[in-house]
Design a protein that fits this description.
Elements: H1 11-29, H2 39-58, H3 72-87, E1 92-94, H4 97-102, H5 111-119, H6 126-133, E2 139-142, H7 153-156, H8 159-168, E3 169-175, E4 178-183
Parallel strand pairs: 1-2
Antiparallel strand pairs: 2-4, 3-4
Length: 196
Amino acid sequence: GKLGAEVNYLIELMGVVCAAVAVAVADGFAPSPQASGGGAAASSIVLPALLLWQVAGLSHRPAIEWVEIPDTQERQEMSQLLEMVRRTPGPVLSEDMTLLVLAGKPVEFQPFDMTQLAYMGLWDQRDFVHRIADEAFGLIILRFDVAAPSTLAYTRFSPEMLAAIRTHYGSLGMRARYFVYGALPGRAGIECPQRS
């Protein structure tokens, strides 16, 4: 399937199937003055069975995303990070776009969307990679360590973007659950690796 796709793509179809099952069950159990040849009774068994199959097919994956309530220390670290973002001059690149909005910073890049467009050849990432290399972002805030990115990290940042971050930004440590990076002095203008 498509990366980022969820079961909600099928929600209209699921609604129609539920309504059809309800009608079939009602028709199957309703007394009929004329014999229908068992078609209604068969559909009152087959359609609910299909509905159960549909539910069982979706139940292997979690349908609810868990929301964790941060402890006191994490809330304090998050407040410090928010203040750090507010005080940083210029734009900040962050995977957590809500953090940028709360700090009054513009959202200049949506990692997942733009990276997928770059992979499909629908967006040229070179200017953005050069912005990273030119240290245009006062901070870069990620959910992963740029030195050892997970497979999931590559859905949100291309190898070229990650190489530019590694080359031009150094770790400022972790705040809450985020890896925070700042520009390395004297590194602006160093050539970024490009995809061959």
